[in-house]
Structures are given as C-alpha cells and as structure tokens.
Fold this protein.
Amino acid sequence: MKNLFIFIVGSLVGSSSFANAKDLKVTVNGMVCSFCAQGIEKKLTSQAAVKSVDVNLENHLVKVALKDGQDLSDTTVTQILKDAGYSVSKIQRD
Amino acid sequence: MNFRRTRILLMGCIVLGSINAKAMLVAYQDSLGIMGVNQSFHTEFFLNYSLTPHFAVGERTIRFVTSDGAKQFFVPEADFLVYRWNNPDSQANFYAGAGYGAESFLNQTQGVAMANVALDWESRRYYLDAELQSLYAADTRNYNSSKFRAGFAPYLAQFNELNTWFILQFETMPFVPEDPFLTPMVRLFYKNVLIEVGSDFQGNWMFNYMIHI
C-alpha cells in the first residue's frame, strides 16, 4: 500500500513536471521576409526559458519550445516580438 | 576639422566598403547593420546601430563621380522608422533620416547636411521601394538622388533557406554624367547576409551587401 502511494505521488509529480514543458504558438503580423525576421529568432533564443524557436513564414507562426519548468508570459513574448519590429495577433499554449 | 585627417578618414571608410540596399535602416533593437553599395559612379558604406525598433544612429560614407570629379561625403546620421504597417501577408515601412557631416572635394572640406526618406512594401512574393536622398553642401550645391525598385521572388523560400529575388531599379543622380540608370539585379539572402548583383544598361556593374548582427 505504501509502495502504491509512492508510485501514485511520483507519477503525479512526474506528469506535472512534464506538463510544464510548454510550447507556444505565436501568430505574428508582418513576418514576410526571413532576412528581416532573423531578429525574432535571435531575441527569443536569448531568453533563458527558451529551448528552441521555429519560424514559419507561410503560416505566420513562431513556435517557441520552452525548457522544462520554464515559462514566458504573453506580455514578455509580445514585447520581444515588438522589439524585433513585429506585432502579435495571437498566442496559443500547448 | 583638420582637412588631412578628414580626408584620411573619408578614404578609409570608402576603402572599407563602399549606398546600401535600403537608404536607411532601422532593424530590431540592439542590432548592428553593415551595408554597402558599389557602382562605378557611386559607392556608399553605411554602419548603424538600432537603439530601439524605431531609432538608429549611424555613419554614412558616400562617393559620387560627378562631372566635376569625385566627391566624398562623411555623414553621421540618425534614422527613424516613422511608421510600420504589419499585416498578416505584407509589411510596409516609412523611414526618415537626417545627418550633418563633411564633404571633401579638390583638397577642400566643407559642411554638408543630409536628409533621407524611404517608403517600402513587401509580401513574400512582391517588393516595392522608393527612396529619396538629398545632400546640401555649404557652398549651396545640392545633390538630390532618387531610387525606385520593383521586385518579385520566383519561389517562396522558408525561413533559413536561400531567398532569391529579381529586382528592377530605376535610379536618378542628375549630378552624375551617365544619369539616369536602369538596373536589373538579383538579390540573394540567407539568414543575416544579403547581397545584390546587377548591371545597368550602360554596362555599369553593381554589388550591394547588407549584414545584420
């Protein structure tokens, strides 16, 4: 019984940690030129919470993979994109 | 300003690079822009730093081969992104810049003021650009130039793929004997490096570059 309790608690902690590894899908306006959009990748990857960045010009999407247990607020993401010269129309969290 | 030092500084800057792909550039915050235009009658080197997404400071070195001879300009400047239209499938920008520096010609140096405006629009497939530049020398001589561009991309490249554009440029420089100039060119860019290669219908080659760091 004790072992079962430890197993359940451990599983919950584990799944909670996994749930923190979030991906953001940011829809960006004005992102039509990859030369100009280099600043987006550079600015986002400089954030400690960011694991990787994937820019998709066709879908106007910037996918941001976050490190386990890390997060970036919508306000921070919007400001980073603004500093890079773009505007954010939507932020989705997986 | 000491003439010899000014001349050495001007020549040094021209040797280092030599108008830019865009008359002025404000890029993302804290970025460094290095740009050059090389034509037989006109070379330009431009180095700038974007303090904010709307404001950059820089230095522009220009050399024109006029009917009177080669004239060189060394102009520290401030550039502003006055307005940007960010749409889902396109972006448009209105830039304005101004500076004050020196003109060197026939062993003489005099003050020169500069003003720039540029308006561009681009989608992933098409590109339009209009730029005006004026240099006002202390001896009341003005050097007004303009540049108009239209381009298209033959394929839609993804981020971090090689991008190719075909561009037609119409450029006026009334103070240059061969004016005006119609130049077809190819623009290639990959990540943060952009180059343009072309030749006008009078046989003058052009090589431009731009790097963002």
